[in-house]
Design brief:
Blueprint: H1 2-11, E1 17-24, E2 32-33, E3 37-43, E4 50-56, E5 62-63, H2 68-71, E6 79-85, H3 89-94, E7 104-106
Parallel strand pairs: 4-7
Antiparallel strand pairs: 1-6, 2-5, 3-4, 3-6
């Protein structure tokens, strides 16, 4: 656990790491409680890049079952570390005090902890129509 905590704190800038789960080729991770949230890092041997997933507990303090196979077709070949975070990390993560490393290549959409969607800023971009080419 000390190695995982060191990695999470020093390479991912995560605070409040209290536990971790590791696995190979799991279709899902069972629900769990007693934590504020989880950051799961997936990788596939022989492939470049990492995949990250963030999950936060519901209002009752439960972290829902995570169906890995719903997000990744190659779930049978994936290795993972799920870093479980204590309550003290929630403020840091939600205030933007932490960013995922630049090595992220795939990230499934993650809903906000409160279940609300964050606003999307609309931007007007004009593009040339196909008939306007020189």
């Amino acid at each position: 656990m000390n190695a995982i905590r060191f990695f999470a704190e020093n390479h991912l800038s995560l605070e409040g790491v209290v536990s971790a789960r590791i696995g190979i080729g799991l279709q899902h991770l069972p629900h769990i409680s007693g934590y504020a949230g989880a950051i799961t890092i997936f990788w596939r041997p022989g492939r470049r890049g990492l995949r990250f997933n963030e999950k936060w507990t519901d209002s009752k303090g439960h972290l829902a079952k995570y169906r890995i196979s719903d997000d990744y077709e190659d779930w049978q070949q994936l290795r993972f570390i799920q870093i479980l975070l204590g309550e003290s990390c929630t403020t840091t993560v939600q205030s933007g005090g932490r960013q995922l490393p630049e090595a992220v290549t795939e990230t499934p959409q993650v809903a906000a902890r409160s279940g609300e969607l964050s606003p999307i800023t609309e931007v007007s971009q004009e593009t040339e129509s196909p008939g306007d080419e020189d």
